[in-house]
User: What shape does this take?
Amino acid sequence: MIEQLQAGASSVSNAMNSSKTTAISAVERAQEANVALERIRDAIQRISDMNIQIASAAEEQSLVAEEINNNTVKIKDLSTQVSDAAQNANIAMQAQTENIREQDAILNKFTV
Assistant: This one.
């Protein structure tokens, strides 16, 4: 009977030691999982920060593209105005040339 008690106590002791080893292993794995989760959280934060920077850069590029478009329209409008002014100047020069010819013809009629 004592042998049976000793065998039972030994069995319980072995089971407790096994449970202790399993618990220690579970704690270690939980700590490793916690470290891994912290790394994942840090990586997600970095990705989030990069996404914010990308969004900001994209918005800035959009504004620059819009400004370039507006400047292009202004250049086109100014080019049209310059072309119109040059055409008007050409018409005025032709009128001046015609006036000079008429005046020259009138002056050639006079003799001294």
